[in-house]
Amino acid sequence: MFDAYIICGTPRTGSTLLCKLLASIGTAGDPHSFYRRQDVSEWAEDWKLPGRDTIGEIEFNVAYLNAAIIAGKGGAGKDGTDVFGLRLMRENLDELSAILDQIFPGHASDKARFEMAFGRILYIHLSREDKLAQAVSLVKARQTGLWHVAPDGTEIERGGPPGQPQYDFQRIKAELTELEAYDAAWSTWFAAQGVIPLRVGYESLSADPAATVLGICGALGVQPRDGEDIRPGVAKLADETSLDWMRRFHSDASGITQ
Length: 258
Hints:
Layout: E1 4-9, H1 15-24, H2 40-46, H3 52-55, H4 57-72, E2 84-89, H5 90-103, H6 110-118, E3 121-127, H7 131-144, E4 146-149, E5 155-158, H8 169-193, E6 198-201, H9 202-207, H10 209-220, H11 240-257
Helix pairs in contact: 7-8, 7-11
């Protein structure tokens, strides 16, 4: 039995879909990117925490950690679960480790610090085999401002004003290189920490979300409250434009290498 799980991902690997599915089953917490630096102030405000300037950095980090654990378990009281969930992108890993080192000094590894904070952890490595599709999805999201939609087409998350997608070979290439580097960095970190993660692929998650979630539940040692009602809360944004960009990218890359 694990006390917690960390979804170790990179952008556009289906992490929002997975987080919503895990939250919906009622026994696996409510995972979010609590340590995404752009969101820390908003979470702290939601949790009504004192400001850093009023209590000091260490005190703030301790209060924030305690509040994040409650939220990641689904909240206090009857709605809470025994399992804490966290989504963590590779770009935020070192920053989280530094925060935990401040709270729990004297530990030689990230893994030891994480265990002091969260207990026994199941690490879930969420990756996407088709890195070009991932890069195209990321570029489109940043250009259009639209990050996630519900199955009925309703916007769930918008990161900026509406914009028109424009094919950009160099930008896609740069994102592809960075995403490959981040994914490789996760593998390097797992090896250095002696961690054997549960590996989950975007392709299998999107093809059969219910089976993927049930597999994670089995690894965690929890049972969904309603195993018959595991339904995706996020729809795919890939469309003909995405496919066209991928075809153009392959063509442009081939022309460069010839």
